[in-house]
């Protein structure tokens, strides 16, 4: 009787360990996606070149977001950016999106310097829209968490310019 109970217990332990999910000692890991937490439901371009291709082929403006994972300003903007449903919906429907944690070789994407967070718009003709900027004169393409409404307004400008110029 004891042997049978011990056998059943051993089989149950073996079966339950095969169905258990591995959790690292540091805790549950979130899978790294191209969104890097800026909007997991969005389809993100992998490279600047791919973003330009999609922008041209789908006739949508490209929004390029420069940030750093360990920058407190980038992290604060990411929180507001990812939680704003209107912004996420507009990006999903009307834009090609790319986020970069490194600089590109295109100097047009850093017209006033290389800083983060920085957001620029590129139209389907591959023209960087330097005329669509934020509210700061010393960092013209910087946005802060309380600038989400301005960012939404600038996204609307990018869409209007696209329709009026093409």
TrEMBL record:
Gene Ontology cellular component terms for the protein in this record: endoplasmic reticulum; extracellular region
Natural source organism: Acanthochromis polyacanthus
Could you tell me where this protein is found in the cell? Endoplasmic reticulum; Secreted
What keywords were assigned to this record? Endoplasmic reticulum, Secreted, Signal
Regarding protein family, the annotation reads:
Belongs to the AGR family.
Q: What is this protein called?
A: Anterior gradient 2
Q: Is Magnesium set as a keyword in this record? A: no
Which region is the signal sequence?
1-20
> Which superkingdom heads the taxonomic lineage of this protein's source?
Eukaryota
Q: Which Pfam families match?
A: Thioredoxin_7
